Predict the structure.
Amino acid sequence: MLKIDSRSRQALYSVDATRRIEHAAQATLPPHTLMQRAGLAVAQLALALAPHARRIWIACGPGNNGGDGLEAALHLHRWGKLPVVTWLGSADMAPQDAAASYQRAVEAGVSFTETPPDDCDLCIDALLGLGAHVRAPEGRMAHWINLMNAGTAPVLAVDLPTGLQADTGVVAQHHVKARHTLSLLTLKPGLFTAHGRDAAGTVWLDELDAGQDRSFKQQVTAPTAWLAGAPDIAARRHASHKGSYGDVAVVGGAPGMTGAALLAASAALHAGAGRVFVGLLDDGSLTVDTCQPELMFRPVHALEFKALTVVCGCGGGDAVRGPLARILSTATHVVIDADAINAIANDTQLQTLLIARGKRLVATVLTPHPLEAARLLGSTAAQVQHDRLAAAQQLAQRFSCTVVLKGSGTVIAAPGQTPVINPTGNARLATAGTGDVLAGMVGARLAGGLDAFESACQAVCQHGLAADRWPTGATLVAGSLARHAPSGD
């Protein structure tokens, strides 16, 4: 059993992929083996998380997720606990494995009741699991979910919190808010993006000893996505100079919005770029930043974009439309953020130039939030959030570039790449300017020689880690985040 954190890279599998892996594993095992292993794993984790718990409410659904809960009840009963099972199934209607587990629990003397206990020390949610992708909780199931969420006892979800979509992270109106989730056999993308992180709490994985080795699952089917791990960053060579780490030019900062461009530039500087130029779009209000004299201000028309990594759009307003065509046509490395994204969404000629960059095999990274992504796709933010993985992949294919779809569980996608979901970061990043900081960090890594996809993955991970490591009680503001932007060494 493995506790999932931000340090290790993990394969993620959709519902369909998980079903294929499950069927392949069952073909090599005696009947009922996977459910018995799943129930034992749930019971073991419950005991580890709440060793002093006595009364444990196990809410079991009518399908195989409920069967896992029934198996867990059997073990907890044998270990001297007082499991109380509420079951929405019946012996004559349940799937074969779940019916067998019900019979085993009855024969072991497990207590069943029609109504949940008034008080308990731990709740185990074994209501739907993967079944949430075909039905939404209602009736008694919805009532039990509300009782769990309103109670004081911690909740352990089996495989998935009930009401959470495994593939997308979308939640139903009634969904379990778990403190811990034990994902069985595979990790699912929905645990780590959209509402998944809020619903699942701490995620654990038990692969149930399926297959002969750790490559078994990938022999059956390719991962749907990857959960990003800590980037493998090489130290800078002693025999190097500022030219070894590239030049970044930040183009943005229309009148009244220069702060966004300065945040991106500061982040690029502190993230390790060799030199950082700033081309403001407000007719030259600044020629030097006395707080950061390392930044070099230039008129936009004087910047040679072909030799630079350009971060374009931060605070650009409508003024960014002017240089954007030249940037898309000539720059070898481009990060497109904020108002530059909006300009492209409203201009078919700019879209054509963006697509042409992919044909020239030059590096392009788009960093939209959900509403900006929706504008590019001609949809709505709600539709983007309904399937973040699909939206990011659609954008990457349409515009032939790397896409960073920001939000809880940021998704990084690119043509020919399995998408990555980032597990780092927290709600402290929900403040003005943090997206500009991320754009600058991506630019610094591009300038330093990484390809577009790896630059995006590293920057997003370290951007989130900076927020996760922020001092307790200290307010995170974008300017401070930029000055603490981790470099690529």
Summary: Residues 251 and 311 are 6 Å apart (CA to CA). The first strand starts at residue 2 and ends at 3. The chain is about 40% helix and 15% strand. The radius of gyration is 25 Å.
